[in-house]
Amino acid sequence: MNRLISTCLAVSAIALIAPTTANAASLLIDDALSDSSITFSVGQFDRGVGFVLSGTTILPPSLGGASVTVPEGTASTGPITYSFTGQFLTGGALVPPTSGVIAFAEAGGGISDILTFNYTGGGAGNVATLTGTFVSDIDPFSLVAPPGATLVSENTPFVFNNTNITAAAVSDVVPEPASLALLGGALLGFGIVLRRRNRA
């Protein structure tokens, strides 16, 4: 009987000491839904500060999720830089690359968004921290790709997953001046046709 009790106590102690399986945190920075806003969607930042965007806690430490929509830079404001920090439990060591600078390139030239990210910490049962910035502007010619930045085409998601986290950023498609001129010409022609039809 004593042996049975001792075995049960040993198994219980091991269960208490053994690290729990880490959940998967998530971050999506979506600048493709609108020409004037960016959505940050986060989940399961379950340690430390949770997830903080430019000084505001978006998700307190929890297994829940949250999202916030923020304005994009305009001609009057210029580029806007959003900083972020998130902390989460990991089940293993972080894997390379643990940092990067990504510039989202427009088809007609110019840069619409710049993402920087950096992972630190991690390890079995330890906390990892993701920090970074996302710089955005509607005018693709106001931003310049930093030296050594990885160029990613507009509207192409850039994935920067790591241990126990899925993370991605996607840039909007800014119409090129030639495309805008073509669209404007088509609308003008359509308006002329409608006006002639109404007169007849």
Overview of this structure, please?
With 200 residues, the chain is of the alpha+beta class. It has one domain (22-199). The chain has two helices and twelve strands; from the N terminus they run αββββββββββββα. It has helices at 2-17, 177-199; strands at residues 25-30, 37-43, 51-53, 56-59, 65-71, 80-90, 99-105, 111-121, 126-136, 150-153, 158-159, 165-170. Strands 4-3-6-9-8-7-10 form a seven-stranded mixed sheet, with no helix packed on it. A five-stranded mixed sheet has the order 5-2-1-12-11, with no helix packed on it. Strand 11 (158-159) and strand 12 form a beta hairpin. The N and C termini lie far apart (103 Å). Mean pLDDT is 80; it is low at 1-21 and 174-198.
In a nutshell, what does this entry contain?
With 200 residues, the chain is an alpha+beta fold.
Q: Please describe the biggest sheet, giving its number of strands, its sense, and whether it closes into a barrel.
A: 7 strands, mixed
Quaternary structure type: single chain
Helix vs. strand class: alpha+beta
Binned, the helix content reads: 10-25%
Radius of gyration: 24 Å
Poorly predicted regions: 1-21, 174-198
Which strand order spans the largest sheet, edge to edge or round the barrel? 4-3-6-9-8-7-10
- Which range does the strand content fall in? 35-45%
Average pLDDT, rounded to a whole number, is 80
Q: Ends: how far apart?
A: 103 Å
Number-wise, the strands total 12
Number of helices: 2
Provide the domain count.
Answer: 1
Shape: globular
